[in-house]
Amino acid sequence: MTIAMLRPLGAVLAAATLVGSLGACVPLVVGGGAVMGTLVAVDRRTAGTQVEDEGIELRAASRIREALGERVHVNVTSYNRQVLLTGEVPSAADSQKVEQVVLAVDNVRSVVNDLGVMAASSLSQRSKDTFITGKVRASLVDAKDLTANAFKVVTERNVVYLMGRVTPREAKRSAEIARGVDGVHKVVRVFEVISEEELARGLAAQQAPVSQDPAAAKP
Q: Are residues 175 and 187 in contact, defined by beta-carbon separation less than 8 angstroms?
């Protein structure tokens, strides 16, 4: 969720076209937010947590705007209640203020603050970042040994951040793929690492049929 100036419409449409060509079920990540397709059902977060994450992004962005106005460019991305802060702020004090504001938001578990103390990025840089995000997403989709929708991708000043609940193998493999994308200067892993057994249990629970009370089903 971006609280400063929106990326140019043309760049967003270009990224949407790139990701859309991969299939309607692929999420398009724009800055810190995501426009989800039909993958909600197979997201490794619970449905409740997905809704919580969206609420965290909205509340955090609103409170940052109230506290610091338009002088900062901050992207707020929440995954499983862990918040990633990217963008630019004028001073170290502003960076600390943003972090404190977000930590006070309900349901936030932790904050990874990677704000740059510098002038706000240009519109052309943000357009580049959007395009890189699309290319990384496409590369993850092409990788047959990964489940692309297990990852959330954020790009800031040519630095790619990868989020998700993944195994050590998936974390290593996805980082290797992202590093190979043209224009990527650095890859930062912001993962919640789980074991293969934990992943198997989670997938089994998602695929288990929902039991229904026969009495409740009667008209």
A: yes
Higher pLDDT, 203 or 219: 203
Q: Is residue 37 part of a domain?
A: yes
pLDDT of 27 reads 35
- The answer to whether residue 208 is domain-embedded is no
Q: How many independent structural domains does the chain possess? A: 1
Are 126 and 88 contacting, i.e. CB atoms less than 8 angstroms apart?
A: no
Q: Is residue 217 part of a domain?
A: no
Domain span holding position 48: 9-199
Indicate whether 2 belongs to any domain.
no
Give tens-digit pLDDT for 105-153. Answer: 999 999 999 999 999 999 999 999 999 999 999 999 999 999 999 999 9
pTM of the complete model: 0.77
Best-predicted range by mean pLDDT (30-34, 183-187, 193-197): 183-187
